[in-house]
Amino acid sequence: MSLSSARSASGTASRVRAGRMDSHQFGDRLLLGLVILLAILWTVPLVWVLGLSFKPNDVLMHSTGGILSAPFTLKNYADILASSNVFTWILNSIIVSGGQTVLTLVVCSLAGYGFARTEFPFKGVIFALVLAGLAVPEQAIVIPLFKMFADINLHNTYAALILPRLAVPFGVFLMTQYFRAVPREIEEAALLDNASRLKIFLVVVLPLSIPAQATLGIYTFLASWNDYLWPLISASKPEMFTLTVGLASTQMNFAQSEGIGFLMAQAIFAGLPILILYLFFQRHIVTAVAGTTVR
Amino acid sequence: MGRIELVGVTKRFGTAEVIPELSLEIEPGEFAVLLGPSGCGKSTLLRMMAGLEALTAGEIHIGGRRVDGLPPGQRGVAMVFQSYALYPHMSVADNLAFGLRNIGMAKEEIATRTREAARILEIEHLLERKPMQLSGGQRQRVAIGRAIVKEPQAFLFDEPLSNLDAALRARTRVEIARLHQRMGSTMIFVTHDQVEAMTMATRIVVLNKGRIEQIGSPLEIYRRPATRFVAGFIGTPGMNFLPVDMAEGAGGHAEVVLPGGTRLATGIPSRNLPSNAGSLTLGVRPEAVRVNPDGPVKAEVEFVEHLGDRTHLHVALPGGAQLVVEDAGESVVRAGEHIALTADGARLHLFDAADRAYSAA
Ligand SMILES: Nc1ncnc2c1ncn2[C@@H]1O[C@H](COP(=O)(O)OP(=O)(O)OP(=O)(O)O)[C@@H](O)[C@H]1O
Ligand SMILES: [Mg+2]
């Protein structure tokens, strides 16, 4: 998938610079070759994981080579599904990641628009404070955060899993910059068109920020889905585990030697929803990673 | 069709005074052009009328209503921006209808107005497109259409032609002027391009550093500029300015002595001039001077510009002063030649030390 988009990108480039076609075609081929090579390098471990996940654990205890030869088994996946909580965990992950994504977009958009377009006292100082948040590592605040949520008795709730992650300095910064780049005259035209401030935000400005929303939304969702530390700390009841924490909890003590196939199946299983998401939003993810622009 | 009245309008950004107290009346149906160099406050003035910029002091009345406290949407004006400012994610039809929907207008009425505006501007076939899919000229029309559908008391244009290429600019100029004739609405048009001002305006307001230098019809402004600033701003190539001395004139008209010592009769009544007029500046447009073998003014041609329909001669007078003179298109004058010139006395201007202008009656 990343392959085809790389090819079309370089194809556009070569069309733009028509003219010395031959040398550019050669350059394109070289680039393509390089991309294919890198893609293979990236794919090999994944394919290996996939292969291992279909092998019986006792075979793997002796050797982890020969992933392409029999015997194969679906037992590892069956074991995952047999763990009665796995669908609860998936649901929890969907609720937490989805909730975090939606709320992050709401909060960051509102905050970004506020910083970009309204005047209020101490705006500069407050914005600087928000940006200072970029420099605070998550691990540094885990303990106070844990205590805070313990004090208000929120652990083992969705709120506890979602709320701490809504403070996203990067998201606020991204949206602020994006809204600043929206031409002021468009909003002024809307003012003359009798639109209220809220209407201008919702109907004129917000639709223009969809590329930025997609970027932020995708990053947030991925980060939230893969998050491990905070759910591990906050959720102590198995029915409140997210998928990452839940799967980890099913691992036996000697999984590295006795349950490699099961371990690999878990990895594939946990990554599956993200893969599906990627298939649906491939185009947006590529733009999100490649950077966004207004207009 | 509203009358617009500015009373003592003042604008300061922080400590910088951009518009010192300014008063102005624009009659219903007028096409008023605010003309002035970049940074003189034209946009600021327009944006204050639109409600996009707050007044530091003063009042604005539109159609007999005081509006300077009202939000932009309630002032009965429509504005066309230099960048067009169309809503990029809305179709042309939605761009036109947005403002009407916001005031809760009935669907049929919106449809009628949108269709009518699209017809006038010949953009009916573009209604379903997004602004991205339009050329600059088409976007411009949509921007004007968005103003037309509102049937406002007054149209405000902020340099709407500056993003168009020369040919399209000339055509759109005519179209906007025609639109004005046809709709008879009050229009205020901001530009720093004197050709736009001359061709479209019924009245030109020349601004300089936030002050009104002169208000008048295009021909008045051209024939009888009130100040040296106005005289120099209107016309291409610009008016020539020469330092001159006063001489005794005959028949009550002023006579001046050019730097080289040549005497030149003007049509300016002597009694209009200040009595102690020591140092004056003579203003003469290139088109008010003719090459004439019997002319009193001798000059040496330094450079010739052939424009086809006319020719510009850059000449030096005996005293060293430079002058641009217009000659016929098929001029045979060459660089290095010595020629003689006459000036039309009725089309000469004198400026005093305070840059006030004196022209023939
Ligand atoms: N928001 C602002 N804050 C501070 N100064 C401003 C602001 N807007 C305009 N100015 C200043 O006011 C003066 C007039 O600006 P304005 O935009 O009205 O000029 P203009 O006549 O429209 O020029 P142009 O032909 O270049 O558009 C300029 O000196 C400008 O720097
Ligand atoms: Mg301007």
List keywords for this structure.
heterodimer; A: 295 residues; MetI-like fold; 2 domains; 16 helices; globular; B: 361 residues; Rossmann fold; OB fold (Dihydrolipoamide Acetyltransferase, E2P); six-stranded mixed β-sheet; elongated; binds adenosine-5'-triphosphate; binds magnesium ion
Give a description of the structure:
- The complex is a heterodimer of chains A (295) and B (361).
- With 295 residues, chain A is mainly α.
- Chain A is built from 16 helices and no strands.
- Chain A has helices at residues 2-16, 21-53, 57-62, 75-82, 86-117, 123-132, 138-151, 158-162, 169-181, 184-192, 197-208, 210-226, 229-234, 243-249, 255-258, 260-290.
- In chain A, helix 1 (2-16) runs antiparallel to helix 2 (21-53) and helix 12 runs antiparallel to helix 16.
- Chain A starts with a helix and ends in a 5-residue tail after the last helix.
- Chain B is an alpha+beta fold and 361 residues long.
- Chain B folds into 2 domains: 4-233, 3-Layer(aba) Sandwich (Rossmann fold), CATH 3.40.50; 240-359, Beta Barrel (OB fold (Dihydrolipoamide Acetyltransferase, E2P)).
- Chain B is 24% helix and 35% strand.
- In chain B, the strands form 4 sheets. In chain B, strands 6-7-8-3-9-10 form a 6-stranded mixed β-sheet, sandwiched between helices. Chain B has a 6-stranded antiparallel β-sheet with strand order 13-12-11-14-20-21.
- In chain B, helix 2 packs parallel to helix 4 and helix 3 crosses helix 4 (136-148).
- Chain B starts with a strand and ends with a strand.
- The chains are: A mainly alpha (295), B alpha+beta (361).
- The A-B interface holds A 183, 185-186, 188-195, 199, 204, 207-208, 295 and B 50-52, 71-74, 77-79, 81-83, 85-89, 98-99, 102-103, 132, 146.
- Magnesium ion binds at residues 42-43, 158-159 of chain B.
- Residues 42-43, 158-159 of chain B line the site of magnesium ion.
